[in-house]
Amino acid sequence: MREAIAGKLVGTRVRRVEDRRLLTGQGCYVDDVQVPNMAHAAFVRSPHAHARIRSIDVAAARRHPGVVAVITGADIEAITNPFIGMFSVAGLYDPRFYSLARERVRHVGDPVAIVVAESRRVAEDASDLVEVDYEELQAVATSGQALADGAPAIWEKAPDNLLLTHSHTYGDVDAVFADADRVITQRFRQHRVSNQPMETRGIVVEVDAATGTTTVHAATQSAHSLKWALALMSDRQTVRTSVKELLAHRDRPARFVAGVKAMLAANPEMKQGGNPMMGVIAKQMRRDPRRLVDMQRAMVGLLAKDRADRPEVLARDIGGAFGTKASVSREEMAVYAAARHIGRSVKWIEDRNEHLMVGGHARDEMIDISVALRNDGVILGMRAALTLDGGAYPSFPFGATMFAQIMRVMIPGPYRIPVLRFDTTVVATNKATYVAYRGPWAVETWVRERMLDVIAREMRISRADIRLRNIVGPDELPTPMVTGPMLDVRVSAKATLERALDVADFDAWPAAQIEARNAGRILGLGVATFIEAAPGPPGFTEALVPGMGSMAGGEPAHVVLEADGMVSVITQQVPHGQGHETTLAQVAADELGVPIAAVRVIYGDTTVTPFSVVGTGGSRSAALAGGVVTFGARALRDEVLDIAADLLEASRDDLVVEDGNIHVVGTPARGIGFAAVAAEARRRGSTAPGTEAIRITQEYDGGEGGWTQATHVCWVEIDLETGQVTIPRYVVVEDCGEIINPAIVDGQIRGGVAQGVGAVLYEKIDYDASGQFQTGTFMDYLIPTAVEIPDIEIHHVETPSDIPANYRGVGEGGMILAPAALTNAIEDALAHLGVRITEQHLPPTRILELAGVIPR
Amino acid sequence: MTTSHLADRASDEPDVDLQPLRFTVNGTLETLEVESRRTLAEVLREELGLTGTHLGCEHGVCGACTVIVDGDAARACLLLAVQVEGASIETIESLADGDDLHPIQEAMREHHGFQCAFCAPGFLMTLKALLDVEPAPTRDQLREELSGNLCRCTGYASILDGACAAVRAIQAGTNNA
Question: Could you tell me if B33 lies within 8 Å of chain A, comparing CB atoms?
Answer without folding.
Answer: no
